[in-house]
Amino acid sequence: MSAPAPFDLASSANPGTKIKRVHQRRRRLTNLQHLRLLILGLQLQHQLASSGDIKNEEEQEEDKEEEEAAKNKAQNG
């Protein structure tokens, strides 16, 4: 007599369901990993912004306006 296989597709009522569940678990893990990476990225961005390394859009626009004003003063004398 041969030993039965640990998982026999022919004997299960619906063989595709067990395989699909395994793939769904894998997808959930990758989605969790993706969310963790997004959260880490947002935390890093927040830390950099709070330390002053990254300027927000308003600060960038103000800097451009100040540079333009300085150029105009230099040109107009």
Description:
By secondary structure, this protein is mainly alpha-helical. The protein has one domain (14-76). The protein is 74% helix and 0% strand. The protein contains two helices and no strands. The protein has helices spanning 15-51, 57-76. The radius of gyration is 30 Å and the shape is rod-shaped. The N and C termini lie far apart (102 Å). The model has no long low-confidence stretch (mean pLDDT 75).
Number of strands: 0
Total number of helices = 2
The overall pLDDT average reads 75
The parts where pLDDT drops under 50 for at least 5 residues are: none
The biggest beta sheet reads: none
Rg (CA only): 30 Å
Please write the string of helix (H) and strand (E) elements: HH
**Helix fraction by DSSP (H/I, runs of at least 4):** over 70%
Q: What is the distance, rounded to the nearest whole angstrom, between the alpha carbons of the first and last residues? A: 102 Å
| Structural class category | mainly alpha
